[in-house]
């Protein structure tokens, strides 16, 4: 069974990433933190076996060149579509169009996500009674979605970037007869409060660059302009 892991990512540009972390960080340092998170996610997912990683990047000037250099030999594609739901649907459509039997998507907001959770999502899809798997976040969204084929209904009529994302997605699934399963709850890194989680500085979390940044720049105090 061929499996693909889709990673949604942005170029770490000041003012375009981690804007909810400014303050306490400056836009420049928020972008540096996002770069750490991005590189940690790419390193972790690049070590997974039995699954192909496909990176889909948010378009912009110089972005294809940045990701071509950052990802190296890995496959990367531009995100296509108007709005997050359309971009997710298009990424899954392209992935399944390449012949994969199952696919999961994650972002870069959880660099400390245990790889076991991703593997568990694919294991759950082996059950013929499961059509889609969600990884819930504590803020009402989801950190992962896995499917065996594209279910466009899961990307339509969703109030993205709100605490109702998962609830609405599950409701859409139920109304469309899409059988779902849930992974353990995890959390994204969106606010300064999120940076205080002990999991982010755990030496065994597989996110060394993110951990080092947080230890050097405690989130309860602003980072000096130009700081590392």
The number of E-state strands comes to 7
Spatial gap, N to C terminus: 43 Å
Round the Cα radius of gyration to an integer and report it.
Answer: 17 Å
**Approximate helicity band:** 25-40%
- Succession of helices and strands: EHEHEHEHEEHEH
Class derived from helix and strand content:
alpha/beta
Biggest sheet architecture: 7 strands, mixed
Average residue pLDDT: 93
Strand content: 15-25%
Poorly predicted sequence stretches spanning 5 or more consecutive residues: 221-228
Neighbour order of strands in the largest sheet:
3-2-1-4-6-5-7
Characterize the overall form.
globular
Count of helix runs:
6
In short:
This protein is of the alpha/beta class. The chain has helices at 27-46, 63-71, 84-97, 115-125, 165-176, 208-216, and strands at residues 3-9, 52-57, 75-78, 102-106, 132-136, 142-147, 180-182. A seven-stranded mixed β-sheet has the order 3-2-1-4-6-5-7, sandwiched between helices.
């Amino acid at each position: 069974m061929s499996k693909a892991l889709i990673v949604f990512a942005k170029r770490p540009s000041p003012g375009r990433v981690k804007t909810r972390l400014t303050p306490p960080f400056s836009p420049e340092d928020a972008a540096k933190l996002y770069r750490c998170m991005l590189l940690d996610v790419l390193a972790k997912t690049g070590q997974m076996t039995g699954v192909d990683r496909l990176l889909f990047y948010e378009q912009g000037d110089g972005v294809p060149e940045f990701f071509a250099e950052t990802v190296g030999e890995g496959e990367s594609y531009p995100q296509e579509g108007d709005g997050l739901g359309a971009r997710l649907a298009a990424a899954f459509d392209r992935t399944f169009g390449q012949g994969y039997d199952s696919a999961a998507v994650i972002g870069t907001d959880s660099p400390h996500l245990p790889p076991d959770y991703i593997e568990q999502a694919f294991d759950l899809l082996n059950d013929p009674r499961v059509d889609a798997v969600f990884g819930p976040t504590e803020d009402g969204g989801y950190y992962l979605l896995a499917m065996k084929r594209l279910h466009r209904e899961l990307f339509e009529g969703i109030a993205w970037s709100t605490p109702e994302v998962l609830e609405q997605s599950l409701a859409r699934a139920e109304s469309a007869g899409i059988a779902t399963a849930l992974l353990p709850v995890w959390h994204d890194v969106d606010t300064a409060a999120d940076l205080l989680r002990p999991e982010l500085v755990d030496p065994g979390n597989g996110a060394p660059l993110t951990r080092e940044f947080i230890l050097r720049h405690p989130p309860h105090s602003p980072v000096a302009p130009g700081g590392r």
